């Protein structure tokens, strides 16, 4: 399938591991120029080196805290300065911790809003003007199936992530005239470090081995297995491509069928 992504410039945040790293690699495999960022420089640079080596891609990597609007602005300016434009932005940030409602502090709420909602706002404010000048762009967020149905122990995610869907819908409506498509990908249970952390919390609470929790999750999924970061990345590559040119304002669930709603 021809994706039309060769030489496109793509920003992927939270890309030192998991879905962000898999997405950066998948876009590089299509010939895109890649700009990646995360908070932890060591793992980020390791990801950059692997992508450069494997795909012979041009990669810019910088340690960035996406909750800091000034840091985001400087990063986007650096990307535009290095590559000349910005075509694709994948807004990805680690999900909030698993907690029950009464144990969540005000600081926890503020951090979740900053990390999982305002980070997408900061990125959109910075990259959309670049996309407007080219009259072509793809802004894609990564959330969770919590935007469709609440997940036990993930109150913060259940409450904050749906706001990203509202942002996606709003941006899609406002900037469609400029050739900018805005969509959201909502993964289900996917084998990442975050899911491993949630598995430990559930196992501890239930007094069972972690593998039992994993098996329970798999049993709930029609495909009877957890997802892989690369499968989330494939959906994002399609949304970024020319083959999805009439898709905007949508949330695409990549969840193995676990969401039961219509």
Descriptive key words:
262 residues, 15% strand, alpha/beta, seven-stranded parallel β-sheet, Rossmann fold, 8 helices
Question: How does this structure look, described?
Answer:
- With 262 residues, this protein is α/β, with parallel strands linked by helices.
- It has a single domain (9-190, 228-254), classed as 3-Layer(aba) Sandwich (Rossmann fold).
- It is built from eight helices and seven strands, in the order E-H-E-H-E-H-E-H-E-H-E-H-H-H-E.
- The protein has a seven-stranded parallel sheet with strand order 3-2-1-4-5-6-7, sandwiched between helices.
- Helix 4 links the parallel strand 4 and strand 5.
- Helix 3 (69-83) packs parallel to helix 4, helix 4 packs parallel to helix 5 and helix 6 (193-206) packs across helix 7.
- It is globular and about 55 Å long.
- The two termini are 29 Å apart.
- The mean pLDDT is 96.
CATH class membership:
Alpha Beta
- By CATH, the architecture is named 3-Layer(aba) Sandwich
Number of helices: 8
Q: Return Rg in Å.
A: 18 Å
Question: Count of DSSP E strands?
Answer: 7
Helix and strand composition category: alpha/beta
CATH superfamily: NAD(P)-binding Rossmann-like Domain
Question: Strand count, sense and closure of the main sheet?
Answer: 7 strands, parallel
Low-confidence stretches: none
Strand content: 5-15%
Q: What is the H-and-E element order?
A: EHEHEHEHEHEHHHE
Mean pLDDT reading: 96
Give the oligomer, counting copies of the same chain as homo and different chains as hetero. Answer: single chain
Looking at the structure, the CATH topology is: Rossmann fold
Fraction of residues in helix: 40-55%
| Termini gap | 29 Å
Provide the number of structural domains: 1
Largest beta sheet: strand ordering: 3-2-1-4-5-6-7
Shape: globular
């Amino acid at each position: 399938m021809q994706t039309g992504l060769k030489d496109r410039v793509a920003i992927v945040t939270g890309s030192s591991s998991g879905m962000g790293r898999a997405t950066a690699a998948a876009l590089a495999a299509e010939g895109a120029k890649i700009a990646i960022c995360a908070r932890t420089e060591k793992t980020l640079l390791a990801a950059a080196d692997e992508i450069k080596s494997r795909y012979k891609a041009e990669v810019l990597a910088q340690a960035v805290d996406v909750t800091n609007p000034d840091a985001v602005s400087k990063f986007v300016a650096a990307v535009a300065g290095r590559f000349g434009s910005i075509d694709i932005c994948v807004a990805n940030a680690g999900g909030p911790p698993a907690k029950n409602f009464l144990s969540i502090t005000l600081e926890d709420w503020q951090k979740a809003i900053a990390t999982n909602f305002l980070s997408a706002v900061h990125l959109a404010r910075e990259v959309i003007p670049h996309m407007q000048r080219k009259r072509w762009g793809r802004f894609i967020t990564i959330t969770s199936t919590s935007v469709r149905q609440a997940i036990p122990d993930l109150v913060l995610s259940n409450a904050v992530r749906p706001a990203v869907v509202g942002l996606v819908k709003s941006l899609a409506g406002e900037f469609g005239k400029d050739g900018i498509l805005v969509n959201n990908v909502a993964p289900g249970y996917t084998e990442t470090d975050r899911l491993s952390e949630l598995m430990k919390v559930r196992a501890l609470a239930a007094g069972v081995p972690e593998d039992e929790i994993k098996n329970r999750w798999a049993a709930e999924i029609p495909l009877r297995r957890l997802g892989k970061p690369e499968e989330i990345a494939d959906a994002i590559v399609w949304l970024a491509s020319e083959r999805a040119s009439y898709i905007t304002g949508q949330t695409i669930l990549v969840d193995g069928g676990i969401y039961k709603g219509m």
